Structure formats: structure tokens, C-alpha cells
Amino acid sequence: MRERLHCRSSSHPIGAIWAVTKPAVSLFKNILWSIYGVRQNMPALLFLSSIRPGRRLAATGLIVGLVVTGLTGCAAGPDFQSPAAPQAARYTATSVADRTASAPTEFGAAQRLVEGLPIETQWWRSLGSYALDGLVNEALLASPTLANIRANLRQAQELLAAKAGSTHYPQLDLALGSQRQQMSPSSQGLSGDVRQFSLYNASVGAHYTLDLAGGNRRALEALAARVDYRRFELNAARLTLVGNMATAAITRARLAAQSDATTAILHAQDEQLRLAHERVRIGQASPDEALSLRTQAEQTRAGLPALRKQLQQTDHLLAVLAGRAPGTGGVPSFTLADFTLPVELPLVVPSELVRRRPDIQAAEALLRAANADYGVAVAKLYPQITLSADLGSQALTAGALFGAGSAVWGLVAQLTQPLFNPGLPAEKRAALAAFDAAAANYQSVVLESLRNVADTLRAVESDAQTLTALAVADSAAQASLQSIERQFRLGAASYLQLLIAQQQVQQIRIDMVAAQAQRLADSVALFQALGGGVR
Fold first, then answer.
1. CB within 8 A of 217, min separation 6: which ones?
2. H or E stretch covering 201
3. Average pLDDT across the chain, whole number
């Protein structure tokens, strides 16, 4: 980056301010020629001397105003340009099927990836759970995380308003004062006694700093970008909150179903163990067989507390996400039957993703803020003009404060140009380093977002295939169980064989439940990876 003044019409080096002000001076000369009779070919820096003294002050004010007007559209540092969108045509190295595998079971329907499919703002409603809809609505209102970010957004908005108010308009101050003084005439080279007197004053002052180099405008740009950052941060927090709640609700449904299936398996194993003990008692089985079955049953029994713990922890998570204390209860008892698998899933091209995901938009806002901060640092290297005016009254008594002859006034114009301040160039370099860091952060966020979508698309494809294979295994286990049941009724199969077949069905059921829940979770993850519904 180069430190330049960027104006609305063109870019001009700060060292060539005359190139900016020359049109204003030419216009001024034309006005003076028509009003005061100044020759048009008179040198621009000498024509003031030809004006009568009574009009010279007004003419000086006019040219200063025109010069300032000529510089009003300029701002230090480069204007921000949005980063280019990703050029990749797809998210994965190899194409992803636009239709997933299907299975003849719950949540086994084929899902279609539809490019350009609109994403509803309340995308979680596509899961078909009224209980989840209600809990999400509660969370969006009561979540302390969102309340924190909303407060940060309001703070950023008020900081922008404060800066705009202090830079767009002159500052007015009212001063009232009273003082008692003792003065010695000798301090002025006079003889005599000391004198005591009171002095009362009342005044109104106005001061304004001209934004010649555009530092204030760049500062406002930075604050506006941080407002946008907080707004996108809020959108990202909403998206994360809803995604976490939907995933937690699905997880709770999975854990409940797996707990039921595990309990059924344990019941079958306890029954097998009882039969084994009976066979040992009558001498048809060895004690080792009973010990082996007991080991299996206790291992299964040990898994139940872990499932219940995860189930309770998920309930606690759902309560906290909804803005409740974990001990208040009232969290819906989600089951897989409460959900519906979306048969159509949205898909956007990578170049569109950067305009949808709030985390990418937030990273771009930080990049815009860093660019503006660099402009602020550059502007500090150039002249600043401050104008001040005071109008008031001063008197020796309060009663004479606004009387005749008590009026006082003052006008001050001050130009300040840093000559030697090693800290300012270092500040500029630091701002440039911050911009480079923000640019790298933006690139990292974009790449992670692309990876997130790629991983989710592969999960949608692969987990559908997993459920298809498990559906085949479940069908085979169910057919085997039905065969064993027929044989048992006819006396051709033992009760132990029946228990083993039932246990096998329940074990596959546990895997089926996990695969079904994963397909729902993959759908949630894809909505979340694509940025949800644009607010």
C-alpha cells in the first residue's frame, strides 16, 4: 500500500495538494474578477494583494472555503475493495452425486441436492419437529449468548454515532466562571499598591477540525465496518445456536432409542444367563459357559449408565441453549419419530457461499475495518487545521456581565504538521501489518468454510450408503428371527436360539438408530455450512 489521498474524482499524492486545490483557486479568481475586478491572468498566489483591505478578509475566507471544499472528498489510504470470490467450480475434487442412496426404512429416503434451492430463514422447520420449533424460538429470545452479542452490537452502533457526532459538526461549549485575583503593579513595571478584584465571565465556544486528509472519514469507515462485524457475528451466533440445538435434539432422540435397544439386549442376555445356570444345575452345561454369558451381560449393563449419562447431559445442554438452568427441567423428550428427513437439500456454488455465510462476511468486515485503520494512520502524517471561535462577556461584577463594553471574542485558525514523530510511521506500519493479518484471517475463514461444506456433502452421501447397508443387515436379521420363531413354535429350535436371534436384531437396531440420526444431523450440518437462511 502507498500513502495517498484518494478523492471522489481521482487519486492525488498528498505532496501535490496544489493539483487538488487549483480548480478551486481558478474558480475563486473568476469570482473575484467579476466582483472586485481582479485580472484573470494574475498569479494565483499574488492576487489577494490587489484587493482593497476592507474586502481582503472576505476574499481570504472565500478562497479558504473553496480550497477546503476541493479537499473535502479526499481520504488517506487506499479505498477498500472486496476480495475476489473463490474461483473453484465445486467443493470436492470429485463430483458428488446429486441424489443419495435410499433404503426401505425410516429416514431412508433418497435426498436430492438442488443447486439454487432457496433456504428458508427458519430452515430448522424442515425437520418437522414442533417441539424443536418451540424450543428454538425460546432460545432465540432467551439465550444469554445472543444477548451478549446484541449488547456488543449496540455498543458498536453508539460508538459510530459518537464519532460521527464529534467529527461531522462543530463542537459547542458553554463556560461560566468567577474568580478572585490580586495583582501587583510591579508585575507590569508600575509602582503602587496591590490591587484585588473579581472577574466574571460567560462565553460560548465553537471549534472544528477540518478533515483535510480524510482521517475522520476513515475512522468512521472503520467503526461502520465494526458495526457490520457485530451484526454478522450475531447472525453467526444465531446460526450456531440453532444448529447446536437441532443437533442436540437429534442426539437426544438417538440416545433414547439406543438406550431402549440396549435394555432389550440386556433382558435377553439375563434370560440366557438364567437358562445357562439351569443347564449347569442339571449337568447340561459347564460353569465356564455361564461365566462367559455373565461377562457379556455385565458388559452390556455397564453401557447403560453411560447412555443415561449422555442422555441427561444432552438434556442439560438443551436447557442451557434455551436460556434455562439445567435443573428447571421441561426439556422435550425428543424421539426419532418426532423428526422428518428433508428430501431436498440446498446447494450453492462456492462463489455464492462467501455472500451467504455470516462468518465469512464478518471476516470481510474486519478486513474493511483494518483497511480504514490504515487510512487513519496515514492521515496522521499530514497537516491538520483546527478552527476555533469564542464569544462571551467579561466584567468585574456579575451585574455588569452582559452590559455595554463587556463583550469579548476570539477567532483562531491553527495548522499542525508533524515534523519529527517516529511513532507515527511505526503506527502506520503496525496498521499495515494488522491489515495483512486480517487478509490472512479472511482467507483462512473462506478455506475452512469450503472444507466444511465439502465434508458435509461427503457425509450426506456416505451416511446414506451406511444406512442402506444397515437396512439390508436388519432385513436379514429380521428374516432370521422370524425363521427361528417358527422353528421354536414347532419345537425345532431352542429358547436359547430364539434369545440369540432377538439379541442380534436389537444390536443391529442400535446401529440403525445411529445411522438414521446421523442422516438427520447431516441435513442440519449442510444447512448450517451453507449459512442458513439469509436474514
1. 75, 211
2. strand 195-210
3. 83
Enclosing H/E stretch for 19: helix 17-35
**65 CB contacts (<8 Å, ≥6 apart)?**
none
What are the pLDDT digits (tens) for 508-532?
Answer: 888 999 999 999 999 999 999 999 8
Condensed to tens digits (0 to 9), the pLDDT of residues 347-396 reads 999 999 999 999 999 999 999 999 999 999 999 888 888 889 888 888 88
Cell numbers placing 172: 459547542
Q: Return the C-alpha cell found at 20.
A: 487538488
Residues present in the chain in total: 535
CA–CA dist 210, 222 (Å, integer):
19
Confidence band for 52, pLDDT divided at 50, 70 and 90: low
Rounded-to-integer distance, Cα 458 and Cα 97, Å? 9
CA 336 to chain centre: 33
> Mean pLDDT over residues 481-495, rounded?
80
- Within 13 A of 520's CA, how many CA atoms are on the CB side? 31
Q: H-type helices in 169-286, by residue range? A: 215-281
- Tell me the C-alpha to C-alpha distance, in Å, between residue 361 and each of 151, 356, 384, 432: 20, 8, 34, 21
Strand partners, 196: 182
Beta bridge pairs of residue 192: none
Q: How far apart are CA 168 and CA 189, in angstroms?
A: 48
Each residue of 243-253: pLDDT tens digit? 999 999 999 99
Range 425-431 average pLDDT: 92
